[in-house]
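Input (structure):
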């Protein structure tokens, strides 16, 4: 009896001992992690001791600013109270220095090595030119630059005008309903249609394509889901994918990738047609997708299918969504300032006369319209801000400095609304951009700046000019007083409640 009892007790004692050892090891690891976080926080506190900011919670930081749905207003308050820059704590061990001063912007953007490598893969369109770094970024940038050659952009104007006309024809059917129209969705379809024709050699009508509708819905979901990445617990993919937002994000990414894969597959099939491959290769200038496909054919080992899809993903997203945001806010600005809208209309009428078509040569003959476009981009920059991680220590013009590895947020929205840079920043004043006017070199950055500026900025500006030239000729724009848009920063600048306008046909 006693022997059998001992045989049972000994294993139990062994299990208890293992549990005790595991508990001690767990406690030690917890203490080590706590010490690591404490030391890291002390390093961060020393790094930002020269920079003033609002009081923050020791654990939650300034997260209350992000949860009020008034983030942009909070940024403007910071810019008014704290010169040049201000730290924003996202949690006790994570802080970013928000920059909204032109001279600070210049110092950071002119250093080509500054870049924030992605710490997670659940947000963003893919690891293309937007997220690449180092030599690979340089190679891809050099490879894709020819697609934005003067001669290619010149040929795109007619395609842009055709896409705008398709959209305006759709609007004509909706005008009889005598209600306001949410324009962001329409411009998203129109800019995607333009991009597909110009950069991806697509011949169909994306504005009537069900695959395009699904893709745009996926991009909208990804835009709305970008907020959770600021949650410290969501920084790791393994945790984020267990959440409802993470699963929805994964589904939206799959839809976006399916659209991209379909575009690539279709173009590959077209290029493989007998005689077509050499015909396309002999073109003086290749389209964006053709450049990528031929690069892969010539050197597939260093340019994989993953690289190809990442570049297409990136350009598909950046090429349509940012432009749709810019155009929507430009037309909203003109709708709320009818006197400027009328001046633009009169300028375009004087240029085009009785001809409703627009050409490359016309784009440089509309100074007042261009002034209004730029002023709207100042008030509503399509990309409200970008993050950078310092690749080496930096010293700013006023002598303050930051160490290597520190995170900075370049807030283009706060820069464009900075009282010290733009007096009366909330007033729509196109004269800021009158020919001959001068300003600090980095005071206006709707397409970022430096070597990592937007590669398609001229493409986007041309498309904006075409839309803003043709739209007011057909319709008069007026705001919906019951649905005033609320700007909110996502991947692009969106409105929390959409951008609704009343449209009245002119003829």
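Output (sequence):
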């Amino acid at each position: 009896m006693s022997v059998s009892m001992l045989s049972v007790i000994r294993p139990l004692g062994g299990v208890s001992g293992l549990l005790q050892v595991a508990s001690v090891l767990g406690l030690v690891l917890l203490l080590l992690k706590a010490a690591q976080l404490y030391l890291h926080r002390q390093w961060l506190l020393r790094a930002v001791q020269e920079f003033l900011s609002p009081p923050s919670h020791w654990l939650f930081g300034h997260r209350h600013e992000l949860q009020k749905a008034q983030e942009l207003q909070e940024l403007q308050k910071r810019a008014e109270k704290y010169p040049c820059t201000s730290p924003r704590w996202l949690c006790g061990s994570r802080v970013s220095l928000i920059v909204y001063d032109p001279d600070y912007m210049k110092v950071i953007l002119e250093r080509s090595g500054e870049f924030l490598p992605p710490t997670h893969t659940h947000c963003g369109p893919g690891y293309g030119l937007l997220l690449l770094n180092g030599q690979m970024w340089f190679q891809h940038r050099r490879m894709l630059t020819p697609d934005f050659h003067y001669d290619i952009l010149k040929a795109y104007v007619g395609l842009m005008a055709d896409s705008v006309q398709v959209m305006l024809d759709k609007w004509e059917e909706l005008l009889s309903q005598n209600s306001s129209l949410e324009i962001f969705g329409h411009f998203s379809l129109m800019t995607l249609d333009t991009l597909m024709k110009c950069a991806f050699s697509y011949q169909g009508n994306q504005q009537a394509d069900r695959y395009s509708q699904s893709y745009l819905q996926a991009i909208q979901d990804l835009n709305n889901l970008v907020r959770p990445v600021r949650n410290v617990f969501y920084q790791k993919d393994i945790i984020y994918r267990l959440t409802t937002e993470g699963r929805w994000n994964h589904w939206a990414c799959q839809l976006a990738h399916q659209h991209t894969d379909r575009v690539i597959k279709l173009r590959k099939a077209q290029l493989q047609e007998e005689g077509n491959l050499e015909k396309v290769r002999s073109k003086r200038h290749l389209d964006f997708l053709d450049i990528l496909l031929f690069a892969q054919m010539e050197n597939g080992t260093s340019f994989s299918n993953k690289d190809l899809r990442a570049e297409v993903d990136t350009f598909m997203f950046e090429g349509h969504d940012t432009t749709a945001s810019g155009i929507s806010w430009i037309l909203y600005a003109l709708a709320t300032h009818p006197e400027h809208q009328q001046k633009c209309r009169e300028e375009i009428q004087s240029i085009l006369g009785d001809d409703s078509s627009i050409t490359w040569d016309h784009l440089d003959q509309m100074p007042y319209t261009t002034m209004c476009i730029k002023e709207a981009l100042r008030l509503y920059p399509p990309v409200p801000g970008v993050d950078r991680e310092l690749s080496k220590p930096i010293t700013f013009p006023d002598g303050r400095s930051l160490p290597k590895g520190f995170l900075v947020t370049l807030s283009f929205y706060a820069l464009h609304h900075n009282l010290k840079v733009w007096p009366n920043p909330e007033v729509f004043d196109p004269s800021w951009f009158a020919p001959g006017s001068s300003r600090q070199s980095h005071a206006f950055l709707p397409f970022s700046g430096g070597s990592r500026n937007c590669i398609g900025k001229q493409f986007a500006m041309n498309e904006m000019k075409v839309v803003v030239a043709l739209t007011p000729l057909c319709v008069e724009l007026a705001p919906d007083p019951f649905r005033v848009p609320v700007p909110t920063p996502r991947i692009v600048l969106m409105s929390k409640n959409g951008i609704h306008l009343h449209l009245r046909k002119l003829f």
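Notes: Residues 417 and 425 are 5 Å apart (CA to CA). The longest helix spans residues 2-47.
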